[in-house]
Structure to design on (420 residues):
């Protein structure tokens, strides 16, 4: 049974940073750059061209990678190379890297999870089925590569609405809402093509559309003192969406809120069921008043956002560093409650052009509570995603100041904050 906590923990940082292997970053240096800023030496593990999804290229050179290892299909050779480089932690750099990261970490002696169950840590359909078998609430749905099977399930399970998405979590393709069989039939070929481009899995999932609020739940798992796995929820973000369904804002929830405690207890059961033994997981969870929390997706890839520094400054907690301190776990040190009433809000701007107008961008950055601004960490913006946006992070111990700046940002956006 897992041990869970709604409160973040801060690990002792007395040990020197080590060497982390980032597996299949697929064109994005974001994880390697973030770890390097925290003093970790980084090694990228890139599958050769025939072994990665067609839309992705090797990680761009940034000057921060100490080494790069090409995985050519031989796990023994890849592990040997990484062992020679002194790798002490392994993380997946993308959804497509979860399986390979599991196999590498298993052979290096600090398993993230059983490689035989890797799909449970990156496949929406496999996750829902596993939770259902364990008696844990999850959205209803079907996982398949065949349109006929999906249409038959929808006919047998009539619902007010459905969502069609790639089975692989973390792919930069937003789910598409479908009212019924006709829309499913129309959307299927486009979604299947997008799934094939961004992952090595052709499966799609059709699930019930949940008209409820959703949360992003970040967690870190590590070996516990008595052979159990300890799961710690580090931060929970409540999402608010606009009338058209686009993401409007994400608010960091105070750790003492009942919702945080409910989501933490639920995630302990989920992470055990998904076989998570070590490392970070980013999950999306819906909450239904009648059914309680419902896992939408979980991905064993470190979550990175422009709000990470604001989180660290406000709470003293560095989620990314703690995610790497799980191979030889230090003693956790309880984190204080932080400043009462401190609020962090991630404001998601709908992008209508190629760049923010320099004059208005300058105004945005000078607002009192703005602590970060930049693109969301997505290497590719897919054709199906019409609402991929930039992000502005607001942080202050004066909630009214945050809300005032939020109102100004939306007003600026209404006056064409983006250049043509």
């Amino acid at each position: 049974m897992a041990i869970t906590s709604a409160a973040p923990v801060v690990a002792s940082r007395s040990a020197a940073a080590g060497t982390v292997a980032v597996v299949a970053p697929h064109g994005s240096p974001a994880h390697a750059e973030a770890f390097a800023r925290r003093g970790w030496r980084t090694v990228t593990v890139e599958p050769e061209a025939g072994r990665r999804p067609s839309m992705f290229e090797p990680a761009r050179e940034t000057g921060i990678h100490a080494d790069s290892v090409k995985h050519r299909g031989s796990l023994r050779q890849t592990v040997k190379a990484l062992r020679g480089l002194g790798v002490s932690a392994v993380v997946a750099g993308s959804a497509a890297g979860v399986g390979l990261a599991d196999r590498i970490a298993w052979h290096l002696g600090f398993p993230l999870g059983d490689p035989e169950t890797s799909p449970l840590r990156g496949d929406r359909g496999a996750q829902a089925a596993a939770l259902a078998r364990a008696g844990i609430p999850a959205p209803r749905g079907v996982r398949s590569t065949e349109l006929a099977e999906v249409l038959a399930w929808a006919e047998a399970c009539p619902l007010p609405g459905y969502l069609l998405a790639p089975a692989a979590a973390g792919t930069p393709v937003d789910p598409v809402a479908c009212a019924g069989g006709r829309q499913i039939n129309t959307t299927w070929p486009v979604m299947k093509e997008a799934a094939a481009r961004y992952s090595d899995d052709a499966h799609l999932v059709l699930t019930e559309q949940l008209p409820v609020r959703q949360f992003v739940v970040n967690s870190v798992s590590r070996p516990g003192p008595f052979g159990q796995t300890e799961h710690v929820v580090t931060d929970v973000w409540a999402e608010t969406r606009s009338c058209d369904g686009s993401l409007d804002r994400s608010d960091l929830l105070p750790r003492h809120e009942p919702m945080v405690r409910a989501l933490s207890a639920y995630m302990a059961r989920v992470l055990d069921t998904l076989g998570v033994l070590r490392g970070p997981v980013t999950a999306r969870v819906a909450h239904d008043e009648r059914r309680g929390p419902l896992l939408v997706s979980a991905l064993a890839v470190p979550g990175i956002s422009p709000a990470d520094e604001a989180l660290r400054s406000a709470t003293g907690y560095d989620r990314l560093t703690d995610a790497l301190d799980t191979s030889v776990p230090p003693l956790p040190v309880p984190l204080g409650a932080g400043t009462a009433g401190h609020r962090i809000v991630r404001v998601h701007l709908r992008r209508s052009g190629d760049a923010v107008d320099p004059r208005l961008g300058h105004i945005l950055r000078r607002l009192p509570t703005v602590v970060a601004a930049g693109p969301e960490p997505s290497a590719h913006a897919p054709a199906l995603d019409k609402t991929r946006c930039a992000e502005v992070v607001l942080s202050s111990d004066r909630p009214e100041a945050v809300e005032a700046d939020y109102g100004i940002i939306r007003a600026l956006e209404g006056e064409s904050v983006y250049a043509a």
In short: Residues 1-16, 328-338, 377-389 have pLDDT under 50 and may be disordered.
